[in-house]
Amino acid sequence: MDKVADLNNNSLSAQGDAGDRSVSEGPRGEKPKRVLTRRNIILYGTLIVVALYYLLPLYVMVVTSLKGMPEIRLGNIFSPPVEVTFAPWVKAWSEACTGLNCEGLSRGFWNSVRILVPSVVLSIAIASVNGYALANWRFKGAELFFTILIVGAFIPYQVMIYPIVIMLREIGLYGSLTGLVLVHTVFGMPILTLLFRNYFASVPEELFKAARVDGAGFWAIYFRIMLPMSLPIFVVAIILQVTGIWNDFLFGVIYTKPDLYPMTVQLNNIVNSTQGVKEYNVNMAATILTGLVPLCVYFVSGKLFVRGIAAGAVKG
Amino acid sequence: MRGSIKGMKRAGLLMAAVAMPLGAGALATDLEVTHWWTSGGEAAAVAEFAKAFDATGNKWVDGAIAGSGGTARPIMISRITGGDPMAATQFNHGRQAEELVEAGLMRDLTDVAEAGNWKDVVRPSSLLDSCTLDGRIYCVPVNIHSQQWLWLSNAAFEKAGVPVPSNWEEYAAAAPKLQEAGIIPLAMGQQPWQTTLAFQVLLVALAGPDAYTAVFGGKDAELAGGEELAKVFEAASAARDMAKDSNVQNWNDATSMVITGKAAGQIMGDWAQGEFQVAGQVAGEDYTCLPGLGVNEVIQTGGDAFYFPKVDDAEVTAAQAELASVMISPETQVAFNLKKGSLPVRGDVDLDAANDCMKKGLDILAKGNIIQAPDQLLSADDLTQVNDLFVEFFNDPSISAETAQSRFASIISNAS
Amino acid sequence: MAVAKRPFRWHRNLSAKVAAIPMIATAGIVFVGGTAWTVLYSFTSSKLLPKEKFVGLAQYERLWSSNKWLISIENLAIYGALSLVFAMVVGFLLAALLDRKIRFEDTFRTIFLYPFALSFIVTGLAWQWILNPDFGVQNVVRSMGFENFNFDPLYNPDIVIYGVLIAGLWHETGLIMCLMLAGLRGIDEDIWKASRVDGIPVWKTYVFIVIPMMRGIFITALVLIASGIIKVYDLIVAQTGGGPGIASEVPAKYVYDAMFLSQNLGQGFAASTMMLLSVVIVVVPWAYLEFGGKSRRG
After folding, report:
1. CA of A171: which chain B residue's CA is closest?
2. Whole-prediction pTM value?
3. ipTM of the complex
4. Of the options 3.40.50.2000, 3.30.360.10, 3.40.190.10, 3.40.50.300, the CATH number for the domain spanning B149-300+378-414
């Protein structure tokens, strides 16, 4: 009982303080009486401990990327760099050679963007409409195809490489950007469709019925009601797809040609060479650099994790 | 034509022709070349190829994909079977591309080879045999990487108070002293190919090149399970003990242990030398290299080769021929192999700039003490099974030398 | 089925059908077609290239007599069970914590999610170092005076799969957390208000009200994690390469190695067919329960 009251109090106060960004980390706020409760200590304590576990590899990677190779060979992975150097970062971005091209990761960056944008948009558009049709406009046979799709989610990609080569060859899209976008759309479809279907299915039925009574059709309901209500799940879908497609290496390299190779091909070339000298600092810098685009998307899209849109929509 | 002066002349003529654009027919043609050489030194070596090829008026379009087997291979095969092949692609010498050739997907280079008189200039000739199917030549060998090397840290032996060994026996005998001094006697990366490498190097050193060829090449299961190899398995078991404190995965992490003196030695191919060089160490002073473990000084003639997928375009076909002859031309061979740290495939070139260890290798090559590499002798499928066996053996002390040997013999007897 | 309850107008259903054409094409052509192709060639002796040289069940016999395959399955079972439970529980707990209207939610959420953005090739290396007894955690703890501290999960065949799990969870729980958070954000604020008014403890509200409402999200998460587990490959390659020995091999790696390292397509297809078969055995009954005749909307 009083736990609930306590919680209620605190969440209200936290809400009240939300605008006050000058308050330093967690519990050590300005108003200790209200903030340093047992609940907050447990809450923030847990979060901080977990955050440390998550940050440890990043720490190792950043520290390593700022060291020179001789220092890395000495082998203390946790020690901060004696002499900070940004050369590995510069090298990873713009100097690392693969074959003739000494342009580092920057070479594939725009290709990656060209692949990413249409693939993400198309796959999410198709899957969200699929999910919507499956959840709200069921028709005979839909379940069968949906089940196949779910089974498809479990097929290791590698097994599908050759059959897809044959299919793309037959429709004349092998080696083209369109072909690659299609491949990403196809492989993103199972999980995304499931994601949207299950989310739309939990949207209050009254909303849907009210719209139908108003005479709205398939597309009208999708765009005017479902879409605006589902921002958080679209964010999850974007996170999934941006990460998956941005980090994809296999499809990008198998279904396109060198002039369309995504950035991950350069990343792979930098970090994955088998026989030459390995530069761990450059590897780490290249990995972090490649991860920056999805990371930015995470951070920006985080603002869309908003509460209460559904409730607002019902009332308004 | 074999060995004739006429042949040499023709080769010379071809080189001359190659050095300049081939007149009217040879417009600048873009050739996409796929390979897996991406580290700093490797990329510099590839640049030599590209430079030489671009000098013919054509253009080298680089399609580098790091990671030889698992990564690059599906890409190459997809591109070739997808009907949109690259113009040239790297494979290891040996049996990896056999099926592509059989399926008629690869271009026959026999005419280029004859014009360039490869039969005479390629040394050892077994390299060309690996490119040959039914008397036709399908690939250009470009370098030789030998695996038969023991790399030793002079500092580690000094610290343990034992002289730097000159062969495997001495090395194994020094192991207890090294351990007392807190040094890991043998550094070993625990990836399957590295364990097989160690085993087959031991096999060549201790049982001799003939036994090696009979087992890997002749698939002699009786020999594989017999007395002679029993002692190799015993040595491998000793090596396992020597390496039991080596906790690294990558070969270069293991090399790094030798460089820093944490470990006394490593069995690894000649590419390990690059790591010593980058660390500023000097052969003979800081580290010692023993080809063939100091016992049987032979080297394996594994390495890389280029294949040329069949294409319809006549221009591309002509440019492919040019690329093939550029790759094997003396100038390119020297420039490329110096950067790559491998040995050239021609016997008629000078490598003055080579360092000590490389010269040792060249010397052995010149004497003709060569054997073929496992991937020239075994199919990829069989080799993977061998790899799996040895990675298990080197990591699990409960597998006895006898058990490992009988499993090895059974793989060999089933090998195709 | 469910629509039967509503006034049935075929052209409305038609637009749903039209909208579902990409899905039908994908399922029918790519997944069914591709799978049938794969199964067919699993009965051949295809090596580097697919060839119609049928050898009956030879590939399957070899598969099941392979020690590596058996170890792979065992590892997948252990890794899968633990990974599923931990990812679900940890993912939900983190989401619930973040949903308590805390400060710096953005920061914490990004910290938990960032591993998902980084490719495994190199983060695997970072974990490999951290878990390495000579220069990772064990070394640090020992140098603090605990000489007998032992922590070398990646180098001990008996526990290596748990070592891999540490990195696996690190990589995927952030995404599950986000998914759960999206689900929690979809829960009507009024429900929380009502449960507060009724004086129901927070944990009870979660367990008995919120979680049942998030059924769809949980199923999505389950499929997401499970499909990831079946396909786990990069993680293993980056961290252990299947080692020590073959102690951390997994089926997807077996398939991949067979296809591209051994150049034995038939063997790889046989292994993938077995994987797919087991998925079908699990998924089809579930789908039947999920859709089977029940008219459930939402």
Report:
1. B82
2. 0.84
3. 0.82
4. 3.40.190.10
